[in-house]
Amino acid sequence: MAVAVAEKHGVRPLASAFILAVVAGGSAVVAVTLAGRGEFSAPDLVFLGAIAIGVAVADQFTLTLPHGGDIEHFALTDAIWAFAIVTAPPGVPTLGVVAGTLAWQVARRWPVRKVMFNAATVALGLGAAEAVYGLPAGRPEVGDVTTWLLLGAAMAVCFAINASAVALVIALVQGEKFRRVLLDPWRVNVLHWVGNVAVGLLAAIVWRESKLGILLLGVPLALLYLAYREWLTSVVERDQMEEMTRAAESIALEGSLSLRLPVGEQGSRLPALAASLNRTLDRLQSALQRERYFMQAAASQLRAPLAAIDRELSEPELSREAVAAANGSMSRILGDMSVFARGAGPGSVRVRPVPLAAFVSDLVERAPAALVGRLRVEPLPAGATARIDAARMSQALLHLLQNAAVHSVGAGDVILRVVDGTDATQFEVTDHGGGVPAGHEGAIFEPFYQAAHSGAGAGLGLALVRTVAEAHGGSTGVVNEPGRGVTFWIRIPK
Description:
alpha+beta; Heat Shock Protein 90; 3 domains; five-stranded mixed beta sheet; 14 helices
């Protein structure tokens, strides 16, 4: 049975008072037990030490699993408690278990408040269990069925005290309902408790027949522990699957991609699956939002030329040139949209080794006329190549050069730079036109976004640049200095 105090939420005054009361009660049980024992014989001390060591060792093999939004802890510690109650002299089980609990938790450097509370709940539970088991006159026979029932009742009292104390302090610390904290994991905890009591009783029966025979239980207990761990994991994962199924049904019925599957705490195999599915939902939601934004922006961009055509049809005195200009504007927008839509599709790029010197020379010849005399190309490493689709990469870089020409008129040179690294080739275009407004660095790559409403283009250039970069398996970004200038880069892996 696990005992733990939630630390991450802090401890409230009422919870602090309850913890102090439990610690006082547990200390009183230890004091009364010590007083009642009087002198300890050598066998008693050996038994006490063995119980303490057994508890400390068993707690190191605790199985931690998420369940119902909380963390449940499962170990064979209760089996040692049950074994000690049946086989050890009165008082020794309580003192041995408390000593073992204190020893390993102090060694782990747990917070003092937590260690004291855990040891106190153990003292209260084991003290009550020993009292129940000692009700009949004389020591009960281990092989008698009534003894098994008596041990079950004693351990049930211990379980109730321990579970209630832990649930209450968690409820007080986290501000949750005591009933929920106590009863949500009842099925798993009760099955775990029954298994521990049975193992402890079996060990006691073997101990009665042969002290050395207890060693023979090691192998089957190890196998039992492994099987038991898998069984508990399957029980918890089944509950998690039910929660995930309900969440998935809600997403399907409501059609809301903003909902997410419950991930829970790590400790089983399902949280990783839930997290992966949630990342998929994140991408679907992002894609849907981008699609909606794209449609809205396209409608907005097409509204102006369509309005011009409408005016020409209703006002014949307007020039035919206005209609031609509107048609040309729509053709450019629709053409850019078509290129953008095909940009990241399968087979959209055909990469091959391209000599960078010839590639850059051709790019300079095709650069916008506005950059004549202003475009400066930094020297390239001799013989450098890049694995790119030359036509698509030229298209992307010409967009960057056109962007620089529009936004840096009369603002100095525009620099074209190619950085040939060991893992990637990076193309850079730098201008000194004032940069991008702070906070807009990511948005400028969205379709139809125009940070500076110059009226030039449809706002698809930088979106197409990103599409070309991603089609090459690379990325794009910006180094922004608002008020001074900006460097756009495309990084393509080798």
